[in-house]
Amino acid sequence: MRTKKIFLNMLCDILPYLLIGIIGIIKMDVLITYVGDVGNGYYQTINQIISYVFLAQAGFSDAVIYSLYKPFANKNKDDINAIYSGARKVFKIIGLIIFGIICLVTLGLYLFYHFEDGYQSAALICFFVISTSYLISYFGRGQTYMSVLSAAQEKYIYSLVFNGVKLLCDILIVVVTYKFRSLEAIAIVILFMKILEEIINRIVVQKKYPYLHETARKDTSMVKMTKDLAWTQVGYLVLNNIDALLLMGFSGPVMVSIYTTYNYILRFLNEIASRVEMSSVYSFGNVFAKKEDEKVYSLFKEFLMLFILISFSMCITFMIGIRGFVSVWVEKENYILNYLTVVLFTATLFMNILYYPLVALINADGLFKDNKHHIFICSVINLVLSIILINFFGIDGILLGTVISFFVNILLKSNSVSKKILKDIKLFSILKYYFLSTIIFVFLAVILSPIESYFLSISSGFITTVLKLGIVFLIVTILTTIVLYFVSPSSRRLFDRITKLIKRKLNKQKGEA
User: Are 99 and 166 contained in the same domain?
Assistant: First the structure.
């Protein structure tokens, strides 16, 4: 049952997101074409600033999810409703705090930020409207519903709603960008879609959980965890979102537009991997809640093998094909970066995906303080190295700083997992997989350079290039799967488990037919 829910959550998260990614590629091209490199640069920077504005949320959702693991495992509806009620109260307070921050940031941008001619009003309106649209789920029920469904291992319900509305939103953004060519029109579309998302969430969740309601007893004990989670969220934002802001300051909006073109595909692939990780967090949380500790290491190794497969499949395909893809997607010569920059982009994705099994274990076991320390150290390393190296190597320096910080993150998390969760397992038994994977990645980056150059030279036509990338992905995935199957017993167990799940599903469908 646990395996079934894991893969159901994954499928409902990933499959719609693939469609969103396809529309997003079209959206990025339309943005660059109709609001220009500068306008797109400001739009992407606005999204980065919004990430920092919502720091007031500071991981509270994760704390709510963790608090709900035990009540759902014990099927205690009274405690579920008490935590739900407490979370609703706190989310509203957080919403008020964030609204105040939005007003202050808007004023600060107006007074102190230097916009290029003709972009100030559009950028400020876009920032304010998009920021406040995200508050709807705080004053409403969207954020609380997401936490409840995640803890119940039924996040796929929320994902279907979220991804469906997101898909419609991106389609409408393409339309209004083409029609009106303004950032303000994009912001209005996002606002209306967030209202629609809240309405649909209420209808769906109330039908699924008719017993879920606010009570006089409001359990807000999860707030105590938020201190550690807050610093973790700050660290994650510095770790993952500082690059675009530094480029804006050092190189201007056009370089941000170029960077975010590559980073959009990278983030798209990383988001798919993170959705697999989120499903595994809820599974590990369920295991810990039921005191099934003997299953943890076996489950961890299976997920580690899964993420090694995902990392090589996605990253090698990205490394070989991204320049050729951008050449037929954007069709601007200044958007074609050098191969070393592509390798560094790929390395950030590779390291980010590989550490997901570790963070899943840490979050599921509630080691938020440990995670806080890891992320704080790594974000400082990333920030300091990026500021120093950008002066010497430009975008390559920023990416190198990010790669190093991600690798340090893996070392720190492996140490915590070995000491506090998998206590009978030596640190080297965990790290050997990461060191070996990194060595193989570097080796492949060197030997695949001629293939990447050839792929770039033959890239002509968007559909043809996408089909070629699909073939590359299938070849890399098949080869990686075969290697893992023969060298890792954990991989064999995972593949056998997936095969049995598919067979049971097919047999059930045949029986119903």
Answer: yes
